[in-house]
Amino acid sequence: MFDQIKQVIMITGATRGLGYxxxxxxxxxxxxxxxxxxxxxxxxxxxxxxxxxxxxxxxxSADVSNPNDVERFVSVTENxxxxxxxxxxNASIFGPGPLYLADxxxxxxxxxxEVNIMNPFLMTKRVLPGMLARHKGSIINLTSEVGKTGxxxxxxxxxxxFAVEGMTQIWADELIDTGVRINLVDPGEMxxxxxxxxxxxxEYELANPSExxxxxxxxxxxxxxLATGQRFEAQSFSRKGV
Amino acid sequence: xxxxxxxxxxPNHLHAFLPAEIRSNKREAVKLLVQNRRTxxxxxxxxxxxxxxxxxxxxLILNNSRTIPAxxxxxxxxxxxxxxxxxxxxxxxLYLHQIEIGDTLTFTxxxxxxxxxxxxxxxxxxxxxxxxxxxxxxxLYTHGIPIHYEYLQDHWxxxxxxxxxxxxxxxxxxxxxxxxxxxxxxxxLQKKGVEIxxxxxxTGLSYFENDHWPDPIFQPxxxxxxxxxxxxxxxxxxxxxxxxxxxxxxxxALESAVDTQHILQPTTGETTLHIKPNxxxxxxxxxxxxxxxxxxxxxxMLSAFIDQKNLLAAYEEAIRQGYLxxxxxDMNLLLPMEN
Lengths: 242, 339
Description:
The structure holds two protein chains of two kinds.
Chain A: E1 8-12, H1 17-28, E2 32-37, H2 40-51, E3 57-61, H3 67-81, E4 86-89, H4 106-134, E5 137-142, H5 155-174, E6 180-186, H6 193-198, H7 214-220, E7 231-233
Helix pairs in contact in A: 1-2, 3-4, 4-5
Chain B: H1 20-24, E1 31-36, E2 42-46, E3 59-63, E4 65-67, E5 71-73, E6 79-85, E7 90-94, E8 104-106, E9 112-118, E10 124-129, H2 133-143, E11 168-171, H3 183-192, E12 195-201, E13 221-225, H4 227-238, E14 243-246, H5 248-256, E15 267-271, E16 286-289, H6 298-305, H7 308-320, E17 331-335
Parallel strand pairs in B: 1-17, 3-12, 3-14, 4-11, 14-16
Antiparallel strand pairs in B: 1-2, 5-6, 6-7, 7-10, 8-9, 9-10, 12-13, 13-15, 16-17
């Protein structure tokens, strides 16, 4: 069950794919939202849509791999809502489509690693103080099957997700007994624009982002208050035995 | 008003101009001068050794106000320094040029601000901005920079002016006493049995330029002492544990939140409390703070904790021993101790 008190849920990369689906879902559930993405026009469009569901929405154009943008996004949110209950570090980039590592341009690899590693690091570091002061909060980092197994041609994206998994484990260990939990969600392969870049003309069946939201509901609710440092696979997630 | 000055001079080489983590990789890598409130005795130590002066059950109260980028520039490149929020679109600001009520300032993105008042007790003026609320803050964080006093030399980013635990945006200048505390130190202190509580007090400007320092009674600062912190302090008082304020801002907030019976109560409001040498302290037993300039009203407050002669003797020794002043500087712990 989603908690009754209006939660403040912060989602990065919320104008498309899973981020957009989650923003819409939580708005419908009655949460207040803080969302960002790099595109100015798109974020405004999504804000207008979410407000139709009755959600109060902070929507800013921001590049969350940039510490100044992170400071702006989180501070405007804290100033408005007074707190952040759940942070979903969803934003990431894939980089160029399928490429052998040996063909991967150095600067592009560096850029993908920087964006995908720095953004959950900076966002988490900035949101944590408020959560630690209140002794509660949930941080959800998005990962992928390729964040624990290396497959040919998944390149910098895969490397960056390995890093995000390690970062999450370290943080979970450091946050033991603080009341703040941090977990990983692997949503599985979904029918999104990013997947089309990773696997062009994919011939096998893909999930729709709306089919993987149950685990996010669980992690944003107090039902998961003891879960930390775990890796959840969204497509096989079931609350039985959690 | 220009406040009376204390009789010491901070030599130029003791103005800290580099953050500790730049000087030596760790924000906690600063020195600690510990002074016994009862005897005036002084110990020299490193800040990382703070926990050895604290006991199980002691309560550290932190100010979790976060520094905002309070300096913006007009399209003519003239500096406007925010000093105090009055409402979602009205701010008192320091503007060091001739200006009259009704004049308009223009900023980037066609943001405008009209002068609606001039303060008679301070050099501040009130501006009504053409944007308010979240739009104003988004503008401020996009175009504003933190206040840099000249001793800092380099322009450090806003992140350099934050404590690790700040999460309530609103301070014009960093509440710097807790700057040296790292999450690791806070975790270790809690493992030892030291308890941590939070209040917030949003600081105003500490200096009006031209040898003009604010008088606390004309410097209202918004603050909040939450119920859980009041409960934490009452429990500690009942077991005779010490309440240690991390910063003069915390002392100001807590001592402003006592009722007529001198009992701490959950409070939200603004304070103009000026704590002076003879002021009674009803809540706070110890103070962790930085080193203050001779003109700062903070020294009046420190004199409420410790005999002024002992305070000045410690400051003279701090100068001899090369302690560093200001927000990136060394720390001073005033604590009632057995010896």
